Amino acid sequence: MLLQILTLLGAVTLFLFGLSLLSGGLQKVAGDGLRSFLASMTSNPFKQILTGIGVTAAIQSSTATTILVVSFVNAGLLVLGQAIGVIMGANIGTTVTSWIMAVFGFSFNMADFAFPLFLVGFFLRNNKKQRYKDIGEIIIGFCLFFIGFAQLRTTAAVLITPERLGFVQAWTELGGWSVIIFLLISIVLTVCFQSSAATMAIIMILVTTGIIPFRLAAAMILGENIGTTIAANIAASVGNLAAKRTALSHTVFNLFGVCWVLAIFPLFLKLVGHIVTLFGLPDPNTADLTDASNAEAISTSLLYSVCTMHTLFNVTNVLVLVWFIPQIEKLVTAIFPNKEGEEDVFRLRYISGGPLSTAELSLEEANKEIMNFGRICYKGFGYIRDAINEKDPDRFEEARAKLVKYEEITDNIEREIASYLNEVSRDDLSERSSMRIKGMYKIIGEMESLGDSGESISRMLQRAHAHGKFFDSELISRLNRMLGTVDEAYQAMIENLNAPYGTLKDISNAEHAEDHINQCRNTLREEHIVNIEENPDYNYQTGVFYIDIVSELEKIGDFIINISQAKIKE
To answer: Residues 89-124: pLDDT tens digits?
Structure first.
C-alpha cells in the first residue's frame, strides 16, 4: 500500500516534470519570437485573446503564460488592460492540454511510443547546436509527460477504488454542499501541484473510474480555474503595483466566472450534456458506469464531457467578460491604489523575483531596467552641473551629498542587474542571447563608472573649496561648455538605449557627441595652458582643479560612447 502511494506520487512528479520540460523547451524554441508576439499582438481585445490562446497552446502552460504577462506588465511591455485580455485568452488556451490528455492519454497508450521517442530526444539534447538541444528537451518532456500520465492511470486504478474511497463517495451525496466541497478540494490540489493540468488528470481519472459523478467533476473544473490563479499572485507579490493588479485581475476574472456558472449550474451541465450527445455519446449527466453493456461508451462520454466542460466554461466566460475589461481594470486598481512615493528611483523598477521560465524571455526585463538605469545616470549628471555651478556652501553640500548617494545607487543597481543576468546565464542560451547578455554586462559596468565619475568630481570640488579655491565666472562658463557637450552625449546614449532590440544600426549621434566632447576638452586644455603662460592673475592651483574636472568630464564621455557601442553589438 505504501509503495503504491509513493508510486502514485512519483508518477505525478514525473508528469509535472515532463510538462515543465515540454513547456520550457517550447518557450526556448519560440525565444525572441514569442516575446515579440506577446508584446505586439495586443492592439485590441480580440488580438489580446488570440495572443493568450496562441501562446498558451504553444507552451502548454497557462500558469507560465500568466506569469509571463505579469512580468511583461512589471517591465512596462504591456499595460494592464492588454494583460487582462491576454490572460482571458490563456484560460482558453490551457484547455488544449486537457484535450491532448483525453485523446492521447486515454484513447492511445502513448507510453508505448514514448521510449523510442525518448531515444531521439536524448541524441538531440546532446547535439552541439542549441536549437537541436531545445527540440530534444521538448521531445523528452513530451515523453516523460505521457509516461508519468500512464503510470498515474495505472497506479490510480489500483488505489482509487470505491472501497478505498468510500469516504469520498459519501461526500458526493450532500446535495449543493457536495459541489462546494469538491470545488474547494480542486482549488487545494491545483495550489499544491501548481499545475491545472495535473488537477485535470486527476479529475479525468476520478470521473472515468466512477468515484465521482460528472456533476462533481464539473465542480472540480471550476475549482481548478480558481486555484491556477494563485501561482501568478505569488509571482506578482514581489513585483510592482501593475504586476499585482495584473495577477489579481486573473483571480477576479476566474472567480466571477465561477460565480455566474454556479448560479446556473444545472443548466450549464445540461448544455454540456447536449453538446456531447450531438456526437453520438451518452449524456454524462445520466451516465451509469455500472452498465457493463455500455461501459466503454459511457467512460468515453465522461472523459470528453470533462474536456467540453473545461473548454465551454472558459470560452463562455471570456465571451461574457471581454466587454468588461475596463471595469475589471478599475476594480483591481481600486484594490491596489496608487500610493504617493511608492515608485522610488533608488529601487529596481522592472526586475522582480527571479528570471522568467526561459533565458530569452528574461532579457527584456533586464533591458528595461538598463534603460531606467540610463535615466538615473542622467539625473545624477544633473547634480554634477548643480555642484559645479553652485556658489552657496549649503546648496553645494547638498548637491555633493547627492552625487555621493548616486554613486552608491549606481553600484547597487549594477550589482542587482548583474546578479539577475548571472541567474539568466545559468540556463541554456541561444548564441544571440549570449551575445546580448555580454553587451548588457558591458553597459551596466560603464554606467556604474558614470556614478564613480560623478562622485570623483564631487571630491575634486570639495578639495578645491577646502583649499579656498573657487572658480570664477570665466572658468564656470568654460565648464558649462564642456557640460553641454556631455549632456548631448547623454541624450544620444538614452536615445540609443531606447531603441528596440536588434534595430540599432547607427550610432553616429553618439560618435558626433563624443567628437564634440574631445574637441571641447582640447580647446579648454589649450586655453588653460595659455592662461598659465600669459595671464599673471590666473591661479595655477585653481587651474589644476579645473582641468582635473575637465578630464573627468571627458572620461564620462568615454563611458557614454562605450555604452552605445555595446548596445549596437548586442
So the answer is: 888 888 887 887 777 766 566 666 777 777 888 888
Q: Would you say 18 and 143 are in contact if contact means Cβ atoms under 8 Å apart?
A: yes
Report the amino acid identity of residue 547: I
Q: Identify whether residues 469 and 326 lie together within a single domain.
A: no
Based on the fold, state whether residues 283 and 386 are members of the same structural domain. Answer: no
Residue 352 maps to a domain:
no
Q: At how many degrees (to 10) do helices 540-568 and 508-534 cross?
A: 170
How many structural domains is the chain composed of?
Answer: 2
C-alpha cell at 168: 469520498
**Same structural domain, 316 and 369:** no
Whole-number Cα distances in Å, 397 to 302, 407, 408, 473, 569: 77, 15, 17, 20, 40
pTM over 0.85, yes/no? no
Does 135 map to a domain? yes
Contact call for residues 102 and 403 (beta carbons, < 8 A): no
Nearest to 160 by CA among 237, 218, 212, 223: 212
Expressed as residue numbers, the domain containing 277 is: 2-335
> How many Å apart are CA 20 and CA 12, to the nearest integer?
12
**Are the beta carbons of 95 and 130 closer than 8 angstroms?**
no
Q: Do 383 and 279 share a structural domain?
A: no
d(CA 417, CA 443): 11
Task: Let me know: does 365 contact 239? Beta carbons within 8 Å.
Answer: no
Q: 21-57, pLDDT tens digit by residue? A: 665 665 565 555 555 555 555 557 777 888 788 777 7
DSSP for 507-564 reads: -HHHHHHHHHHHHHHHHHHHHHHHHHHH-TTS-HHHHHHHHHHHHHHHHHHHHHHHHH
